[in-house]
Amino acid sequence: MLANELSTPVLTVDLDVLERNLERVAETCRKQGVSLRPHTKTHKTVEVARRQLALGAVGLTVAKVGEAEVFAAAGFDDILVAYPIMGQEKHRRLATLARARRILIAIDSEAAAHELSRAASAQGGTLGVLVEFDAGGKRCGLEPGPQVVALAKTIAKLPGLKFRGLMSYFGNVWGTPEERRAEAEQVAQRVDRALAAFRAESMPVEIVSGGSTPSLEFAHLISGLTEIRPGTYVYNDLNTYHQGACRLEDCAVRVVATVVSTAVPGRAILDSGSKTLTSDVMSAGPKTGYGYIVEAPDAPIVKLNEEHGLVDTTSSKHRFHVGEVVTIIPNHVCVAVNMHDEIVTLRKGEAVGCWKIAARGKIR
């Protein structure tokens, strides 16, 4: 069956593009001398994770306990929960996982450290802990310096926990290639400040985990970084493209949709609305529209209802017709993937399989 014969709306991935993306970043990491611990938030599938490990990734990154449970159940080990998990029930689940798997968790507070210690001690296991510091994004993480060391020392004394190193998220590395390089150089200074505080205390730091897809090509600028955690690179999206971090042909995921109405002049209606594409607007480039129609780049998707995608056709050379099938590159692929139960795999435009998005909706 060809892609345009599928029941729509449907999420699809071009396997040739996916494999090229995976190989490119694996090679980039080897050249830069950093390990790859990819974030599964983008693909949420066991099949892609296996390909990442086969190409040399040292482990996986997740955001939530539910995601860690999915990948642990599938046999994966060395999983970093890169989120300040709070709540006794979730800490018990993490401690349970740690009895059979190597689990790392990033935290930035003593409150989290003490709760995790109690949970791990009760289960008789050990959780590896990374202290999160702020690389400039001002989201989570302590200011690099003495307070990071102080939290690390607290962790090192608590039963059931083992201090393994530091973590930060380079979400502030964003924009054009020039802007991203400049921001990466600023990040490098904050990483150095964090590590200097540990050197002053003669306290070893095994892991320094950082990164993102927009920053991955600049990892070599950040001295002391041991691993990076990009996620979007597996599929890419319009945000990645408009930053110059990929080409359009590197966007592996497309939403296949059908034109269901052209009754209103100047409008074409697609069967893919906010429940398919998400309502995330662009964060880079033009910062407008809700996806890129490959067959009609001059026809923006200007509005989404739950099940309707409204396309402005007034300035388009393309003549839309009811029943026509089009393909859309999403603005933000991570969220789009999480809207779907499955993703159809393609080779040369032909459907060859279907993967369950196993970690979809695992928000706790």
Describe the structure.
With 364 residues, the chain is of the alpha/beta class. The protein folds into 2 domains: 3-10 and 245-356, D-serine dehydratase-like domain (Lyase, Ornithine Decarboxylase, Chain A, domain 1, Beta Barrel), CATH 2.40.37.20; 15-234, Alanine racemase (TIM Barrel). The protein is 30% helix and 21% strand. It is built from 10 helices and 17 strands. The protein has helices at 15-32, 46-54, 65-73, 88-98, 110-123, 146-157, 177-200, 238-242, 274-277, 333-337; strands spanning 10-14, 35-36, 60-62, 79-81, 103-107, 127-132, 161-167, 207-210, 227-228, 253-261, 267-270, 292-293, 301-304, 309-312, 325-329, 342-347, 350-356. Strands 1, 10, 11, 12, 13, 14, 15, 16 and 17 form a 9-stranded mixed beta sheet that branches. An 8-stranded parallel beta sheet has the order 2-9-8-7-6-5-4-3. A hairpin with a 5-residue loop joins strand 10 (253-261) and strand 11 (267-270). Helix 3 packs parallel to helix 4 (88-98) and helix 4 crosses helix 5 (110-123). The longest helix has 24 residues, at 177-200. The protein is elongated, with a radius of gyration of 22 Å. The mean pLDDT is 97.
